[in-house]
Amino acid sequence: MHFLDPTNDYAFRRVFGDEKKKGILISFLNSILGCAGDEQIVDVKLLDPRRTPRILGAKETILDVRCHDQKGHEYIVEMQVLKQEYFDKRVLYYASQAYTEQLSAGVSYGRLKPVIFLGILSFSYTANPHWLSMHQIVEVETKEHKLKDFKFTFVELPKFSKTEKELTSIADKWAYFLKHARDLEAIPEVIYEEAIKEAFHIVNESGWSKEELRSYERRKMDLMDQAAISEAAFKEAVEKAVEQAVEKAVEQAVEKTRLEARAEERREMASNLLLKGYDLEIIHQVTKISFDDLHRLSREIFSQ
């Protein structure tokens, strides 16, 4: 078997965005978000991933996976391969947009349902050393959780380091699937959950048509182009920073030389005035050299 990369946006949507195979998404959400008991997700309704902005001129947002559970809670699942500037603001924008879209004119605030954002990241993002982190709005001192309708969870794949033998939870196995599927030749024996097995079968290259593979490759090339552009922009920024640093260093060196030259000129003038017997007060006023330095200079001159 040869498995395609499930973190590829096109493949990711094939795995988690299929209404006919939503058991995969349910398993993924329950395990990663830790939903159990009354909070367990038993059904989802996939939503249109496109969001048309209400603000004239704003760009359309296309999310990877959106769904509602049986309680009406909305889940946004995003696969983010490249680290982008203002990613935190994008996350907040997606969540707040989903929240405000629920409320039309004349509808009570009580009808608003929680929004849960789940980001799968191919880069390190938080200071948490663990690969799975959960964020919510709490009071700074007491940690009281009063504002409950927003939750943000991040799966940071670079931090996931468990081997196949160390996989214990279903969440572990999903993270292993996302990070290592493309490097495997068979479904690991430790994975017996049907949802994860089905996910492996979905990314099995032999089951993809030529057109589907072309779409997969196009998306991969798009990401490579974006990475190249980001790298080029980074190099340009570094080069500019180095150039500016060199210019500043030269300016500082020139200024230092100029100041040293002026200081030497003042010292020479003070020496001549001391030799001619002028009063220290007059020499100080003329040269602006401190009295302490003038006393030292006087000792140097007349001790010779």
Question: Which helices and strands appear, and what pairs or packs with what?
Answer:
Blueprint: H1 9-16, H2 22-33, E1 44-46, E2 50-51, E3 61-62, E4 65-69, E5 74-80, H3 87-100, E6 115-121, E7 132-136, E8 150-156, H4 170-180, H5 194-202, H6 210-275, H7 280-287, H8 291-302
Overview of the structural elements:
There is one protein chain. With about 300 residues, this protein is of the alpha/beta class. The chain has a domain at about 10-210. The protein contains eight helices and eight strands; from the N terminus they run H-H-E-E-E-E-E-H-E-E-E-H-H-H-H-H. A six-stranded mixed sheet has the order 1-4-5-6-8-7, sandwiched between helices. Strand 5, helix 3 and strand 6 (about 115-120) form a beta-alpha-beta unit.
How much of the residues is beta strand, in percent?
A: 5-15%
| H/E series | HHEEEEEHEEEHHHHH
Outline: elongated
Distance between the termini: 93 Å
H/I helix tally: 8
Spatial strand order of the main sheet: 1-4-5-6-8-7
Number of strands: 8
| Unreliable parts | 55-61
Class computed from helices, strands and strand pairing: alpha/beta
Report Rg: 33 Å
